[in-house]
Amino acid sequence: MTVAFRAAFQKWARIAAQAAASPSLHRAALYVLSALTSALIPFLLLPILARSLGPDGYGLVGAFTGLVTIATVLVGLNTHAVLVTIYYRVSEAEFRRKTAACLCVALVTAPVLWVISVAAGPWLQRITHIPAGWYWALAGAALGQFFLSVSLAIAQVRGKAPQFAALQICNSALNLSLTIILVSVFAWDWSGRAVAQCIATLAVGLVGLWWVSGRRWISLNTDKDAVRQVLGFGIPVVPHSLAAAFMSSTDRLVLIALVGATSAGHYFAAFQVAGVTTLTSLAINQALTPWLFRSLANRSEEGDRRIVRVSYTIMALLVIQGAVVAALAGPLMYLAGGSGFEESAPLVRVLAISMTFNGAYYLFANYIFHAHRTQWLSALTLSVSLFQIGAAIVLVRLFGPMGAAWGSVATNLMYFCGVWLIAARLVPMPWFGRWSVR
C-alpha cells in the first residue's frame, strides 16, 4: 500500500508541477488577481463611505451606482461583447475593423445618452433623490467603462494577461484613491464618489485605447457592414444586458423610492458585503472564458467531460463561499460599516444566497454567447427582470429591505435555472453523465 500511495503521490506531483509551469495557468492567475482587485473596490470603499456619509448618503451612492450600471449598457449597445466571441473565427483585418465599429457606435450613443440623462434629471430626482445637476456624470462614467471594456477584451483574446491586469488594477487604484481624496480629504458628500468614478473610468479607458491603438490592434477605418454586424450582435443582447442591469439595481432603486435613502443605505451596505461572494465568480469567469471558447471551438468527448467537471467544482466552491459569508455576516457587517450598520447583518445572510445563484449563472451564459443565440438570453432576462420589478414593489411594501432581499433570491434562482436549461439545449453537454438536455 505504501508503494502504491507513493506512486500515486508522485504522479499527482508531476501533474501539479506541469500545471504550475503552464503559461495558461499563469495567465489565468493574472486574470483572477486583476478581477479580484477590481471587484474589491466597492468592499474597500464601504468602511470609508459608510462612516463618512451614513446610511442616507450611502443610499444615494447605491442609487447612482445602479444608474451607472444601466447607462453602461446603453453606451455602445453592448457591441464590445462581440470581440471575445469572433476573435478565433475571423481574420486580423476584419477583427480590427469590427473593433473600430464598436468604438464608432459608442461615440454616437454617448452624446445621446448625455442629452437624455440631463433632460430627464428632474424626473429622476423625484425617484432617486439624486440632484438633477449630477446626471451628466452617468454618460461620462458609462463611456469610460465602454472604452475600458474594449481594451480589456482585446488584451484578453490576444493573451496579454499582464496588460489586462495592469489596466484593471490601475482603474481600481485610481477609483479608490480619487474617492478617498474627494470624500475624506475634501469632505464632499456622495457626489465625491460619483465624480471619482467618472474621472477614473474615463482616464483609464482612454489610456487603454491608446495602448491598443499603438500596437495597431485597432483600425482607424471601418465600414457600414462592420457596424451593421456588430450592431447585429450587440442590439439583441441589449434587452438581456439592460434587464440584467435592472436586476442588479431594481431592489435599491425601489427601496429609495418607496422607503427612503436610509433603508436603501442599509440594504446597499449589506449588498456590498454579500457581494464579496461575486469576487470569485467574476474572477473565475475572466480566467475561464478564453479556455472555454477555445474548448468549444475544438470539441471532443473528453474535452466536454473536462468542462463539466470544472463547472461542478466551481459550483461547489461558490456554495461553500456563500455559506461562509452568511455565517460571518455579523462580524463582516460591523467591520465594514461600523455600529451604524449592524442591523444590516440579517440582510447579508439572505443576500449571500442570492449572490451564490448569481455567481453560478456566469458558468452557463458563455455557452449562449458561443452559440450566438443571444435572443434566448434576452427573452429570459427580460422575463425575470419584469418578475423582479413586480416582486420588489410588492415585497418592499410588505417587508421593507428584507422583502427586497428575498425577492433577489427568488429572481437569481429563476435566472440561474433558466440560463442552465437554455445553455444545455443550445450546446449539449454531459451534465448528467451520458445524458444531455436536448
Number of helices: 16
Sketch the topology as an H/E string, one letter per element. Answer: HHHHHHHHHHHHHHHH
Number of E-state strands? 0
Helix content, binned percent: over 70%
Structural class: mainly alpha
Largest pleated sheet: none
Estimate what percentage of residues fall within beta strands.
Answer: under 5%
Spans where pLDDT lies below 50 across 5 or more residues: 8-21
Mean residue pLDDT: 79
Question: What does this molecule look like?
Answer:
- With 438 residues, the protein is mainly alpha-helical.
- The chain has one domain (39-426).
- The protein contains 16 helices and no strands.
- Helix 4 (92-119) runs antiparallel to helix 6 (136-157), helix 12 (301-327) packs antiparallel against helix 14 (345-370) and helix 14 (345-370) packs parallel to helix 16 (401-426).
Topology, pairings included?
Layout: H1 2-20, H2 23-74, H3 81-86, H4 92-119, H5 121-128, H6 136-157, H7 161-185, H8 190-214, H9 224-258, H10 261-274, H11 276-297, H12 301-327, H13 329-337, H14 345-370, H15 374-399, H16 401-426
Helix pairs in contact: 2-6, 2-7, 2-8, 2-9, 2-10, 2-11, 4-6, 4-9, 6-7, 6-8, 7-8, 9-10, 9-15, 9-16, 10-13, 10-14, 11-12, 11-14, 12-14, 13-14, 14-16, 15-16
